[in-house]
Amino acid sequence: MVELKLRPGHLYSFEATTRRLTNFEKTAYRFLDGFFYRTLRLNDRPLAVGVGWDGAQIRVRVEEELSEEERTLLKQKIRRMFSLDVELEPFYEQMKKEPRLAPVIQSRKGLHFVLDPTLYECLIKTIIGQQLNLAFASTLTQRLIEQAGEKIPFREEWMLVFPTPSQVARLDYEDLQRLQFNRRKAEYVIDISRKITAGELNLEALERLPDADVVEELTSLRGVGRWTAECLLLFGMGRRDLLPAADIGLRNALKKAYGLDRQPTEADVRQWGESWIPWRSYATFYLWDFLSGS
DNA sequence: GGCCAGGCTAGCA
DNA sequence: TGCTAGCATGGC
Hints:
Layout: E1 2-6, H1 14-18, E2 30-32, E3 35-42, E4 45-53, E5 58-62, H2 68-81, H3 89-95, H4 102-106, H5 119-129, H6 134-148, E6 150-154, E7 157-161, H7 165-169, H8 173-178, H9 183-197, H10 211-219, H11 226-236, H12 248-258, H13 266-273, H14 280-291
Antiparallel strand pairs: 1-5, 2-3, 3-4, 4-5, 6-7
The chain binds a DNA duplex through helix 5, helix 6, helix 9, helix 11 and helix 12.
């Protein structure tokens, strides 16, 4: 058993940050003994990793032995996934000037993104979530993991590991249709996985590109529109200034926060968002959190 | 039963 | 370039 500690570089609320894990990310995370457990891969080795909080630091728990290299990798991965090096004070300062948003922001101080461990997982989950209500999207994701992923032992039981591109590439469209994916969504998910497996698509290489280029590259894929590309930049890469202005959730959140009697248009959102630059991702994220009722 | 879900593509003007 | 039907199901 290995336990590591990681200190956040800046103001950090573990409680606010993990609140959504048992809700929106409930297919990935399992809460047990004060730790949020999920599986991820270190150099292709699947592991169950628990993440908790000791009041000042993140506790990371793995119930197997790790090499020095794996420890280093795990630390890097968790720091990145839990946004431990993101400094939000400038964001809070800037948003004080937004009277209608300030209460939403100030009551969530220390809330950070929890990123997916891989860009592939993020992209596939986002495609599955297109247009569907979150509950059903989560059901479909879970079914994909059960169909294509592998199981690893965990405390007398097992946990599922999100499948690799090659594991999904081996499926037929009909396999996913049986899980109640619509035909086109089955094609998007499998075709993209096959492209990655064939070496025709390298998601990691996109990390080096600016936002606009990532959107351009990704939207050339069948099944990926602007919203999906922006979600990858947000929840896969943690980019700080994305505004998914057409997003239904964001528009509903603004309607609620601003006390409007109709849903604002995409153009409204873009215009209001101008004054959130360069923190539009975080403004969006805090509004989503506000909408989900906490 | 009807309409909307944290969209996208293909087909048509 | 811009508009819209269709998708497959759950939740309200």
